[in-house]
Amino acid sequence: MKAILSGNEAIARGAYEAGVKVASAYPGTPSTEILENIIQYKEIDASWAPNEKVSLDVGIGASFGGGRALVAMKHVGVNVAADPLFTLSYTGVNGGLVLVTADDPEMHSSQNEQDNRNYAKFIKVPMLEPSDSRECKEFTILAFEISEKFDTPVMLRTTTRISHSKSIVELGEPVQGLPEPKLVRNAAKLVMLPGNARVRHPLVEERVKKLGEFGATLDINRMEMRGKEIGIITSGVPYQYVREILPKASTLKLGMIYPLPMELIRKFASKVKKLFVVEELDPFIEEQIKAAGISVVGKEILPICGELTPGRIRDAFIKAGVIAELVSTGKVESEGLPLPGRPPNMCPGCPHRGVFFALNQLKAYVTGDIGCYTLGFMPPLSAMDTCICMGASIGMSLGVIKVVSDEEKKKVVAVIGDSTFLHTGINGLMDMVYNNVPATVIILDNRITAMTGRQENPASGFTLMDQPANRIDIPDLCRAMGVKNVRTIDPFDLTATKSAIREEMNRPEPSVIVTDKPCVLVKREGVYKRGPVLTVLEEQCTGCRACLKIGCPAIVWKPVEGKKGIAQIDYQLCSGCDVCRQLCKFEAIERKK
Amino acid sequence: MKAAITNILLVGVGGQGILLASEILSETFMLAGYDVKKSEIHGMSQRGGSVVSHVRYGSEVFSPIVPEGEGDILFGFELLETCRYLSLLKKGATVIANDLCIPPPSVLSGKDIYPEGLTEKIGLLFPDFLLVDGLKLANEAGNPRAANTALLGAVSRRLDIPEEFWMKAIEKMVPSKAVEINRKAFLAGRNL
Q1: CB-CB neighbours of A118 under 10 Å
Q2: Exposure b/e, A410-442, CB count within 10 A at least 16 = b
Q3: Site from B34, B47, B61, B66 to mutate, A interface, most A CB atoms within 10 angstroms
Q4: Domain boundaries of chain B, sorted by first residue
Q5: For chains A and B, what is the number of CB pairs under 8 angstroms?
Q6: How many beta carbons lie within 10 A of that of residue B178, not counting itself?
Q7: In this complex, is the C-beta atom of B91 within 8 Å of any C-beta atom belonging to chain A?
Q8: Which of chain B's residues have a Cβ under 8 Å away from the Cβ of A330?
Q9: Phi and psi torsions of A232, nearest 5°
């Protein structure tokens, strides 16, 4: 049977056909849909973990117990999971273990565009890179076979264009006859004390060598000869662009990009007059080929930053004189027509909006974190001063407080979401309590991991399978950790929100404020109660623009002849959160009857 | 069956239902026996940002994204976004746009104005321009929520795919109780 699947759906299908027992992940664009799709296969125990390290720990345990395990994360998630991953390379596996790293060239939804192919070399494990959904499924199955055959975790690397593009996939049946999981003790292999690890390291080096030789025999590494003039070594989605833009070039398509099949590359190089590497981001393949003494052109003509596109590859090869300039395709410039941008925005009714408005008013120095609330950086709220990575906000606030003057210390506020707090923010809170730093932390508890598309988390009360779960109570957790000043606020009450934040900023002790209104998009019955929508009394609106300062998409500015203009509220977008009404000094906004 | 690849771009504002429309398109092409690829970016764009989805079909499709300047059809769900992506099209391409303006944040706050005369501009650049009131067609078909399907019907006029495949794809992709309304809306657009 054929189906149109995204790369993520195809990886989920591959896991099912490979007989995976356990799947664990923390959501992160562009990897999130792998686990969301795996839940349709009831044979797999699938769950959200609080962070990527825990998900890999769970996967390692499942593998050691003898089951096949898949863990999935976005590229920066691998940084969090790197600690166990480096040592898992030494222990190897029992049941196959595959770690999906979904990279994000161009940073469509990320804070950096690190190239995780480097991890494969650093950790000394094989990495496969599919170039469409069909390969996503097939490589997932192959990755489990390689994992068990070579006693190694295998990384499967996708990029946003692979994860989120759809193409046709032939569906198969699950593999049969895998061994039943059971407890098997093998401390010399699985307890990585120095004495044991010293024995394992040479085996890792030997494994890399064998995998390089094995790669030359794999049909996912293949030469496609179309002519002798130009040879292109490529992998992943750039392979598809090369086929499109340089249809006459011969290609060496690499499915396993670490370790590289250097003898195959040498053979390919000898068959063509001019050799190129077309790869996104770092010169990962190129540098290894050059180190092997083979002459090749890569980043001399192609960009390191951003994704490759058919157009960018075309431009590079035109510049390099390889292909002729296209006769104008008739690219039509819309010059003379400045188009206002359309950046993402917090939703109407978002519980974060009032908090950032208050922080702006209080001129707080906000150490921020990763989530929808990072949009609090955007004007007109403009209330975020730093954002680095998941969970960093609290630690950063402590560091800032340690160096600035006593007067400035009071300005510093850390802001973090519920899911991010439980991911890695909680450790920063321990530091705050332990070292008694007089920081103010605001935990925006909207009961969901919102930015990635509303996934459950340990504080949401539900599992990935949509089953009721034990819910971690964040205020109680903070108290249990030793924070004496913990208060819960309603972020839709602007006055109370502002005064609570002001009080805690001025308190020379550690304090935590938790907001307790859920994400406006959470569809669960009774979770979000819509208030009556709001409306502007046009005759009372003075055009002062105070309500525009919260940047709500439901409030529209309407220019009026002979007057400053007036605000209007789009009743279809308004959720009735009431924040704008509290800002109007002229009582021009009222609840619609 | 033709061998050349047809490049379609669906553009609009996050939350307008562009993903479902591009799924129905892709499904239709697969049912009609073509190779098909589609690509779009999820994530930040869902928060009311600008969205573009690429759908390509033909006998064999490599790249999941439309090479710049090679778009054959632009299917716009909103006028400002339709204009934003015109440069992806080739000369003589078809533009089918929903007659709808959704002001972006800078316009809502009065900082920018929503540009005027967009439809005239599109019509000058692309003579094969069809402006469709999706909401009106859907209302006539009996449900304003089927506006996207009505627009899809208008797009289908420029694609050489038999009606039965469109109907099958709608049946598969739309919740069963909404199938009839969506078929009606689709035909309203197709028979404009």
Answers
A1: 14
A2: bbbbbbbbbbbbbbbbbebbeebbeeebbbbbb
A3: B47
A4: 6-190
A5: 178
A6: 15
A7: yes
A8: 69, 89-92
A9: -120, 125
Strand order in the sheet with A274-278: A222-224, A250-253, A230-234, A274-278
Q: How much of chain A is helix, strand and coil, in % rounded to 5?
A: 35, 20, 45
The set of residues, in sequence order, having a beta carbon less than 8 Å from that of B58 and lying 6+ positions away, is B2, B3, B4, B5, B6, B34, B35
Q: Which top CATH class is B6-190? A: alpha beta
Residues from chain A contacting residue B106 (CB–CB below 8 Å): 340-341
- Give the type of residue at B158: R
What the block records as the tokens of A108 is 């469509």
Residue A127 · residue A156 · CB < 8 Å: yes
Which pLDDT tens digit goes with each residue over A179-228? Answer: 999 999 999 999 999 999 999 999 999 999 999 999 999 999 999 999 99
Q: Give the Cβ contact number of residue A309 at 10 Å.
A: 21
CA distance A81 to A89: 13
How far is residue A579 from each of residues A504, A512, B65, B85, measured CA to CA in Å?
A: 22, 23, 41, 35
Residue type, B86: L
pLDDT tens column, A347-379: 999 999 999 999 999 999 999 999 999 999 999
B141-172: burial string, b at 16+ Cβ within 10 Å, e else: bebeebbbbbbbbbbbebbebeeebbbebbee
- Round the CA-based radius of gyration of chain A to a whole number and report it: 27
Distance CA A74, CA A113 (A): 11
Q: Distance between CA atoms of A426 and A395, rounded to whole angstroms?
A: 10
Distance CA A99, CA A117 (A): 12
What are chain A's domains?
Answer: 2-217 (3.40.50.970), 222-319 (3.40.50.920), 352-515 (3.40.50.970), 534-591 (3.30.70.20)
Burial of residue A394 (CB within 10 Å: 0-12, 13-18, 19+) is buried
Extract the tokens encoding A275: 């050799």
Pairing of strands A412-417, A365-367: parallel
Q: How close B19 gets to chain A, by Cα (Å)?
A: 11
Q: Which two tokens stand for residue A130?
A: 């599919």
* pLDDT digit string, tens, across residues A445-498: 999 999 999 999 999 999 999 999 999 999 999 999 999 999 999 999 999 999
Decide: A169 and A2 in contact? Cβ < 8 Å.
yes
Contacts B42 to A, Cβ<8 Å: 29-30, 109, 164, 453
| CB spacing of B69 vs A29 below 8 angstroms | no
- State how far the Cα of A350 lies from the Cα of A433, in Å rounded to an integer: 30
Mark which residues 130-189 of B lie under 8 Å from A by CB. none
pLDDT, tens only, A1-24: 999 999 999 999 999 999 999 999
